[in-house]
Amino acid sequence: MPDKALKNAHWTEQAIREAAILLISKIGYESMSLRQLATQAGVNPGTLYLYYQGKKELLLTLVLDYLEELSLAWKHCKPRNAKADATLQAFVAFHVRYHLLRKEQGVLGNMELRSLDDGELETVRQARRAYLGELQAILEQGRAEGLFHYDEPKLLSHILFNMLTHVCSWFRPEGKLGIEEVVSQYSELAFRMVGCTTCTVDPTRRA
Questions:
Q1: What CATH number was assigned to the domain covering residues 56-207?
Q2: d(CA 71, CA 61)
Q3: Are 91 and 76 in contact (CB under 8 A)?
Q4: Among 139, 156, 181, 184, which residue's CB has the most CB atoms within a 10 Å radius?
Q5: DSSP of the chain, one letter per residue?
Q6: Are the C-beta atoms of 199 and 147 separated by less than 8 Å?
Q7: What is the pLDDT of residue 206?
Q8: What is the DSSP string of 67-92?
Q9: pTM (2 decimals)?
């Protein structure tokens, strides 16, 4: 395929993905029709089938892309050789900002999983474990350093992930709290949840 055709195919697929993310975040996966998606993407309905077998394959692709991009972004910015309290604050700041700046992806990647079947859900769970493993490692490091005091790192990592991710469903830019205030409050809450009585939020720290 000539380079120009490859570029056009890439742009078309990207337009379909962006349109799907926008529509699903606004009206939900079940309510989105392929005709609506095609109109939003600026393509003919038949063009969709050149890239995806149907809505379910598109949704799974978008969710897996979200998790992969999330993991890569964290690995790129996470502190090196830092104490667990500093790394946890960096993780909270990263995760909250990421989901506030990409609210549509956050909603799609976490609120529409009910639309996937068991096999697809297991694929998503495997991808999510890689990211949750990063958080669990921070928690285990903190306990080993004597900073954190809690019982179950795996359970706590799931609880923290869900709490931090939920921010994309309620935050409003016109609300009382700005992004940095939300980050600070979630950081303080995370420290309390891990049982760190000596941890304090550093307002200058950014992920």
A1: 1.10.357.10
A2: 15
A3: no
A4: 139
A5: --HHHHHHHHHHHHHHHHHHHHHHHHH-TTT--HHHHHHHHTS-HHHHTTT-SSHHHHHHHHHHHHHHHHHHHHHHHS-SS--HHHHHHHHHHHHHHHHHHTHHHHHHHHHSGGGS-HHHHHHHHHHHHHHHHHHHHHHHHHHHTT----S-HHHHHHHHHHHHHTHHHH--TTSSS-HHHHHHHHHHHHHHHTT-SS----TT---
A6: yes
A7: 63
A8: HHHHHHHHHHHS-SS--HHHHHHHHH
A9: 0.89
- Cα gap 123→7, rounded to integer Å: 29
pLDDT digits (tens, 9 = 90+) for 65-102: 999 999 999 999 999 999 999 999 999 999 999 999 99
Q: Where in the chain is the domain with CATH 1.10.357.10?
A: 56-207
1-52 CATH: 1.10.10.60
Q: Where in the chain is the domain with CATH 1.10.10.60?
A: 1-52
Paired tokens of 89: 């604050």
